[in-house]
Structure formats: structure tokens, C-alpha cells
Amino acid sequence: MEYALSECENRSRRVGNCPPQSLSECENKGIQVVTINPEMIAFAKKNSEFAQVLHSAELVIPDGVGIKLGMKLKGIDIEQVPGIEFSKKIIERCAQEGKKIGLLGAKEEVIQAAAANLKKEFPSLEITFQRNGYFQESEELEIIEKIKASGVKVLFVALGAPKQELFIAKYKENLQNMLLVGVGGSFDVWAGKVKRAPLIFRKCGCEWLYRVVTQPSRFKRIFPTLPLFLFEVIMEVRNKTNAQV
Ligand code: UDP
Question: C-alpha dihedral over 147, 82, 106, 58, to 10 degrees?
Fold first, then answer.
């Protein structure tokens, strides 16, 4: 978590304080943060546009336990960094440092409750842009202009994957010096509409099980994607080992 946060900070600083000679390289770019899970990787395999978005993201964070397990099978130990916790830490820092944030996504009543709860938790937080996630493509440019005018340093986009990643990638050139984080269903949790799994589930890497039981509509999204993803990683590692022998 600390590593992901400091990477974010370093990158924001690098873009924010770009030396004049390298301005052309970075003046026109927001920093896209993707919190990745096996469903997104499975979708990227079928959709080259989405694969390109993942490849060109400035920072990719291992959100789900599936990614942690997959990396472990490849012999690499990584810390799982749930996007929702990572985003909360960023919000806390923004409140401390007086940086404005924006919220884009979810239903109107959800975003209102989420914003109110965040303000309650961090009284000094400035949310200068707020918009629900149900809009037409023809409204997007107007939304982008409003985001730019709001002076936000960090924009959280909750349109669900892959919509939010595609949206951020489409507009990151317009949203200079901004951290752009796709947060999926986090606004629903911050609004108190959806409960996160109890700590015991999170600690043992079973948050996905809790979500499937409490939101059965998720079953189709996780199965067979998660076991298939792990199977593919096992096959990849096996093929590599066989090729080396
Ligand atoms: N959503 C939205 N606009 C859309 C589709 C979805 O704002 O056109 C919101 C939806 O209301 C929900 C979030 O996106 O708040 C998606 O949550 P989900 O838990 O499905 O996302 P995940 O974390 O699984 O990517």
C-alpha cells in the first residue's frame, strides 16, 4: 500500500512540477491508475482496445486476491492493495494537504451520500466536482470542461470496469496534472449502500466469496473467470519451465 501511494505521489509530483524542457512530454496528460483484477485481464484478452488501455496506464495496482495468487504462482510475492482502501488513503492525504477532489460515477443518491459521508469523515476535504455516472456520450465533453474548471487534483471515476478505464484513457490527455483513479463500486460502499466484507474475510483473501454471497449477480462475473485465470497462469508457468528444461 505504502509503495503504491508513494508511486502515485512521485508521479503526480513529476507531472505537476514538470521541468520546462520536458513540458512537451507531460503537459498534456493525466495519470491513470488502474486497480486490476482477473476479470479485467480476461476482458483485455478478448478486447484489444482495453488491452491497450491497460498497457498505457501510468500505474496498475493489484486490487484482487486473484492477482496476488497469480503472481505467487509465477514466483513473485506482492501485496494486495484493495482499490477502495488505496483511494481512501489518497482522499485522507488530499484532505490534509488541501487538494481538491472530484467524484464521477454511480447513481445520484449514491454519489450524494458518498460525498456527504466523506465530508463527515474528513471535514477539511474539498469536493469541487461531483456528477452521477449516468450520462450520454454527447455530454462527455461538457463534463470534462466542468472537471477542468473545478481545479481537482484527483478524480475518482466509478463507472465500473471496463467503462471507467476506457473513459479515463479517452480523456486523460485533456485532464492535465490530475490523478485519475477508476474505483468501481467504491462510491456504493462509501454511501453505505453496499457493505464491504467483514475483516476476517478480507484478511483471508475471501472478500470475493462474501461479495458473491451478498450480491449473487456477481457470480457470473467471477466464475469461471477467476479459476480460469489461475489455471492459465499455472499453464503459462508450466510451459515456461518445460521450455527451460
Ligand atoms: N455505473 C455508473 N454508470 C454506468 C454503469 C455503472 O455510474 O453507466 C456505476 C454503478 O452505479 C456502480 C458502479 O458504476 O456504482 C459499478 O459498480 P460495480 O461494483 O459493478 O463495479 P466493479 O467494482 O465490479 O468494477
Answer: 30
